[in-house]
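Protocol step 4 of 6: structure prediction from sequence.
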Amino acid sequence: MTEKTSFRGLIFDILHTLIDDSGFPKKIIPQFLAESGVKVDRNHFNQEYDAFGKSLFDWPNIHPFVSIRELHRQRLMHFYAQYAVTRNIEKDLGRLWEYIGSSKIYPDVTEILPKLRRFFKLGLLSNADKDDPLIRKLLGKGFRFDVILTSEEAGCYKPHPHIFEIMIEKMALKPGELLMIGDSPQADIVGAHRAGIAVAWINRQKKKLPPGINHPTYEFSNLNDLWQCLKPIAVTNEKQEH
């Protein structure tokens, strides 16, 4: 981090940045199938799940816009058709939402996010619906954000420029004063770079950057490392306010 860098606002992604989904919903759909008497070959299922999910959640190519709930509905319909089962889709979607809400907040988030809030304006920017259970979970645990923007509200998904334009406006800061913090090379790194925003890649699983993705401004394995990097700016911000 250079001495000239001065961030005043931090924009957080949620999934795999602040909250661990613990493999959801890859573990849950086989459970639904088992309830209908279907024995699933997990290796085959996992391969099909990953391949179908990659095409279904291809953020830049979702046109026209559909909600996250609708994408989950399409995935359930796909697997129910593949395994020839008839189930109540809406009921299962409701159960999926409950399972999402049981996901765990990373321990470092509980420690570091309140520290960051003392010195920076905080925003949440997520490819999510307005009623996303992960947002409710964060707010229910007492975490506070100055701005919360979902893809459903913006009508598009990261990395689309429009969602970042809205976020910049709501944060009321210049792009150079913002730092995007997220785990997704495609949604967060590409989107932030296009918007002229610096980006910190939270690479908890030590993955390699996919081909064709420009390097992030910073890379951290957790929020503890992020805090150590931002601490000098936090001190500067505090002095300026006083």
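Step 5 (inspection) to follow. The chain is about 50% helix and 15% strand.
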